[in-house]
Amino acid sequence: MFNVEFQAVVLAAGKGSRMHEITAAKPKCLLPVGNKPLVWYPLVKLQEIGFKDVILIVYDNQKSEIQSTLDKLNLSIKIDYVSIKNEDQGTADSLRLIHDKIKTDVLVLSCDLISDVNLGGVLNLFRMHNASLCALLFNPSASEQVSVPGPKMKYKPERDLIGIDSQTNRLVFLASASDFETSMTLPKALIKKHTQITMYSNLIDSHVYVLKKWIIKYLQNEPSISTIKGELLPHIIRKQLLKPKEKLDYNTSIVNTRDESGIFGYVSESPLDLLIRETSSFNDHYGDLKSSYHGDVVRCFAYIAEPSVFGIRVNTLPAYHSVNFKIIDKWEKLTKDKELNRIDSSADIQSTQVDDKCIVWNSCKLSEKTSFKNSILGFNCEVEKFSRVFNSIIMNDVVIKEKVALENCIVCNNTVIESGCQIKNCLIGSQHVVAKDAVHTNELLTLNDRLMELE
Fold it and tell me: Hey, what's the signal peptide range on this chain (predicted)?
């Protein structure tokens, strides 16, 4: 439906630095959420609205594992894998890398987005105003008290300061709240131009952006811009206050000269577009006699999803923990009524105590006289007799020996938990062996040297 008009790009070359305890030995985009890897959710979202192709940006050393995993999921969308070797590259650097592949306007998504939002809304807003960029924002979800596995600590959510013109949905200000101590000021020119600005500090940036093709070209000549959210978006938003020099030759683009920033050398608006705006009775705002959009050729917009929309970025440990225990209830809305295969047919389930809040991946073996409540067990896990697993996320290739009790834990890949262990509220890193009869509560059990390297 949209694949000719827009190209889709999914950014999956992230370290997961805010949850490195569980991404130290596994690509962030392959973390299990429900019965699928994390990146499956944005890919299916693109499929649903008609995209046939997507560019997936990954780290070079993770490409084969990611490709092998996605090949098994029977996705209809064609994936063009683009790998980057430098792990210090930012998200804008990734877009710069694929500039030669970009032929149309671009829909950019992060691999950690899980949402039931209709992306058609943000695309339509972009179309309606011939926008330069459009960002999707979520309303905050109701606060919830959750016990995140691992040492007790306070997780401080990131907050953005977002200014939106309430008349027009123009996005006029974007910055991290951490950039300001006690107060902030807005340019006088901005307040004079947009008289009805609403400042938000609780909206959630989904990292879904629709960008004009010219922005990708502009990035090529702005090598200092490394990230989309922190640098590119604020930069473009600020340029809305500038005006281009008008050419007198109306046979060429009305906007085709460089200002001091160079941005207007990339924006293109034809004389016909300008003539239509000037002769049309349409205006996007009221309260002055200025033309529509105040004559701006750089136009940024915000699409705020309805409060009923579920949307989360799985980029922190609390978010990862939370979404896994919501996935069954949200599944139908997330996937447009696709059937949730809670228990894979290849799993060997001898236990009679697996409740309806459990998800069991393929090739698992759950012995008799075991008990499972509200838990996820990943690929090729084995649980021996007299063990119980409650409210836990067990990743792939995990072995749980006899008489083990796990409660509210996250257990990463290739871990072995020896018999008799009592473990509660713990995070167990990959390839860790928990000694026989060990008792642990609110601990991080992992290979310390690996975590030190990441820090």
Answer: none
Record the pTM. 0.90
Looking at the DSSP bridge assignments, the partners of residue 388 are 371, 405
> Based on the domain organization, do 184 and 220 belong to the same domain?
yes
Q: How many CB atoms lie within 10 A of CB 265?
A: 17
* Same domain for 207 and 119: yes
| Residue 189 domain flag | yes
- Burial code (b: 16+ CB inside 10 Å, e: under 16) for 74-107 equals eeebebebbbbeeeebbbbbbbbbbeeebeebbb
From 23-27, 133-137, 225-229, 439-443, the region with the lowest mean pLDDT: 23-27
306 and 359 belong to one structural domain: no
Three-state secondary structure of the chain: CCCCCEEEEEECCCCCHHHHHHHCCCCHHHCEECCEECCHHHHHHHHHCCCCEEEEEEEHHHHHHHHHHHHCCCCCCEEEEEEECCCCCCHHHHHHHCHHHCCCEEEEEECCEEECCCHHHHHHHHHHCCCCEEEEEECCCCCCCCCCCCCCCCCCCCCEEEEEECCCCEEEEEEEHHHCCCCCCCCHHHHHHCCCEEEECCCEEEEEEEECHHHHHHHHCCCCCCCHHHHHHHHHHHHHHCCCCCCCCCCCCCCCCCCCCCHHHCCCCCHHHHHHHHHCCCCCCCCCCCCHHHHCCCCEEEEECCCCCCEEECCCHHHHHHHHCCHHHHHHHHHCCCCCCCECCCCEECCCEECCCCEECCCCEECCCCEEECCEECCCCEECCCCEEECCEECCCCEECCCCEEECCEECCCCEECCCCEEECCEECCCCEECCCCEEECCEECCHHHHHHHC
> Which has more confidence, 288 or 232?
232
Rounded to an integer, the average pLDDT of 365-369 is 98
pLDDT band at 183 (very low <50, low <70, confident <90, very high): confident
**Cα–Cα distance, 47 to 371 (Å, whole number):** 37
**Domain around 347:** 341-454
Name the average pLDDT for the chain. Answer: 89
The structural domain count of the chain equals 2
Based on the domain organization, do 136 and 196 belong to the same domain? Answer: yes
Same domain, 70 and 98: yes
Confidence bin at 2 (pLDDT 50/70/90): very low
Tell me, yes or no, whether 31 lies in a domain: yes
Contacts of 374 (CB under 8 A, 6+ apart): 325, 355, 357, 358, 390, 391
